[in-house]
Amino acid sequence: MCLAIFAVALLFVVRLFFIQVVQANYYADLADRQYLRPSTGVFDRGSIFAEKRDGTVFSLAGLKTAYIVALNPKQLATDKVNGEELYQKLNQILPIEQEAFMKSFNKVTDPYEEVATKVDQATADKIKALNVKGLDLYKQKLRSYPLGSKASHLVGLLGYQGDTLAGRYGLERSYDQVLSRQGETTFANFFVELFSGLGKSITKSEDKSAGDITTTIEPITEELLEKELFAVKEKWQADSAGGIIINPKTGEILAMTALPNFDPNQKQADINSLANPLVEKVYEMGSIMKPITMASGLDAGAVNEKTTYEDKGCITLNKKEICNYDGKARGVVPMQEILNQSLNLGATFVEQQLGPEKFRNYFTAFGLGTKTGIDLPSEGSGLVKNLQSPQPVDLANISFGQGIAVTPIEMTRALCVLANGGYLIEPHVVKRIDYQNKLSRTIEPKIGTTVIKKETSERITRMLVTVVDKKLANGKAKIDNYSIAAKTGTAQIANPATSKYYPDRYLHSFFGYFPAYEPRFLVFMYIVYPKGVQYSSETLTEPFINISRSLLNYYQVPPDR
User: Fold this and answer.
1) Cα angle: 272, vertex 276, 282; to 5 degrees
2) CA 37 to CA 31: how far, in whole Å?
3) How many Å apart are CA 489 and CA 537, to the nearest integer?
4) If residue 254 lies in a helix (H) or strand (E), which one and from where to where?
5) Which domains does the chain have, with CATH numbers?
6) What is the Cα Rg of the chain in Å?
7) Is the pLDDT reported for residue 243 higher than 60?
8) Which residue, 14, 61, 233, 520, could crosslink 48 as a Cys pair with Cβ 3.0–4.6 Å?
């Protein structure tokens, strides 16, 4: 008997903990509403946070307080309040459609009629000052995105599907189960549950997976990336742009931006702008694919740094001509110059030295054509069927970044292999979940399979550092005391109507990582169809230099040379 009494007492203590601590805000809001609405539920949802490197916390998504303006027509009728006069007073503070107001006012047997929602504090104070009994204000909770359009594709937004409000894009969708709240039963229901089921459902109404999430996004880094991409998009009137800053060793994404973006606080006019192109769309990436081709050749022993080939400017494969970007022959060329001068025929030579089977196997091992597993919704995977083509011309095109299309996050993961010692990582944007039951879970990095040897990673890194030191912006991109590895890319854009390439439309891409031999950051950027310029070295080099210098300074990274 004593044991049973103790068990019941313990159940009460646990339940009181959930009510007074875990669900305190919920019940406070519910009490504030005084149960006058037909539905007593209070909107609630978990928060999405970002932390600065100094530990300062920023809210990316949370709740804000607004007010519902409601009439008590029954009370107003009892007090003989003049509806026209009340409307005129209220309309001076908060514009309201008169016919709808009077229709609600005249429901004299109804104790509750909403006439406005989402009213801010200042307006609510003015309405309260009217001091009209039967003109009431009730708090309501609304979803709020304090940083507006910043990281909007990553954060996402809520939306209705029928009568159901839930996360529809970004983290709001992929972590909807964690962020959503099912609401609480009344305390009276607890006694029914307790004595009918011996407390088995004592915590039934608390979703054990409910909580808040903290992202890997670093707000200053995010702002830096957005600023640089916005400037380059505007300067060259590009159709769109995107970028990712990632830790290539762990897969933690510090910044992720796609332009044009959107403000999740506002009503969305164009639903097509809500999809995240960094994880959902595919592009032909151009010459940033050449380091992957080169690394594959080095790793397999098909070529080495002293290997040379005869560059004739153009060759014909399967009756189709393949040329360098300028069509010019270079004569006898060493491997380094393939990257320095971004030679299409050089990448083709390496692919041919590998042979079709090894070439396909390496590109597949780099994760091209497969989803990365990033914790964002609707991830696409690359269109790489040409890797299986028996035609030499198709494999040659792939070697320098045409003929296959991949998502930006897929490309970023592949490039991280070059930087981190040779293994696949799983990109992620959430680092911690803090549950309502006061427990917490840290998201640990997931390290995948080895793609290339560590030695190969060091060799390709040396080659890419040489590109920056000697060739990128004629050596002006070099940063004193820091080793930077980087490569530009320019790809022709396909015309979907003709299945041929536009003669004057390009996608520019760029990637770089630093400090090169112990990298903390890999930066990937692209812009689509910049106007009046052909090569990415002209558009994305300066933004990359600005980002590199800023990150090295902000994170106080010690020099490595």
Assistant:
1) 95
2) 12
3) 8
4) strand 253-259
5) 219-262+279-554 (3.40.710.10)
6) 30
7) yes
8) 61
Q: Quick check: 177 and 161 in contact, CB under 8 A?
A: no
Tokens of 363: 């590109």
Determine the 3-state secondary structure of 247 from DSSP.
coil
Half-sphere exposure (CA, 13 Å, Cβ side) for 243?
32
Looking at residue 165, its pLDDT comes to: 87
Tokens standing for 407? Answer: 């998502």
Structure tokens of 436?
A: 């309502």
Dump pLDDT digits (tens) for 512-535: 999 999 999 999 999 999 999 999
pLDDT score recorded for residue 534: 93
- Residue 290, pLDDT above cutoff 50: yes
Strand partners, 298: none
Distance of CA 134 to the CA centre of its chain: 46
Phi, psi of 489 (to 5 degrees): -150, 140
Residue 510: phi and psi, rounded to 5, are -160, 140
C-alpha separations of 456 from 471, 524, 549 in Å: 22, 21, 27
Q: Which of 391, 402, 388, 404 is nearest to 347 (CA)?
A: 402
Which pair of tokens denotes residue 34?
A: 């005084």
Best-predicted range by mean pLDDT (40-44, 195-199, 274-278): 274-278
Structure tokens at 142: 């609304």
Q: Tokens 């504090």 sit at which residue?
A: 121
What is the overall mean pLDDT for the chain?
Answer: 90
Q: Are strands 331-334 and 135-144 parallel, antiparallel or unpaired?
A: unpaired
Please name the residue that has the structure tokens 């459902």: 201
Query: What span, in angstroms and rounded, lies between the C-alpha atoms of 489 and 501?
Result: 16
Lowest mean pLDDT among 226-240, 249-263, 266-280, 544-558: 266-280
In degrees and rounded to multiples of 5, residue 501 shows phi and psi of -85, 140
**Is the CB of residue 230 less than 8 Å from the CB of residue 240?**
no
Can you give the length of the chain in residues? 561
Structure confidence by residue, pLDDT tens digits, 407-455: 999 999 999 999 999 999 999 999 999 999 889 999 999 999 999 999 9
User: Which DSSP string do the residues of 521-535 spell out, in sequence order?
Assistant: EEEEEEEE--SS---
Q: What secondary structure does DSSP assign to 404-430, as a single string? A: -BB-HHHHHHHHHHHHHTSEEE--BSE
Dist. CA 388–CA 411, nearest whole Å: 19
Q: Which two tokens stand for residue 382?
A: 């690359």
For residue 423, count other CB atoms closer than 10 A to its CB.
Answer: 17
Look up residue 180 and give its two tokens: 């959503």
What is the rounded CA–CA span in Å between residue 150 and residue 390? 45
Tokens representing 510?
Answer: 């760029």
Residues 6+ apart with CB under 8 A from 294: 303, 335, 338, 339, 347, 350, 460, 463
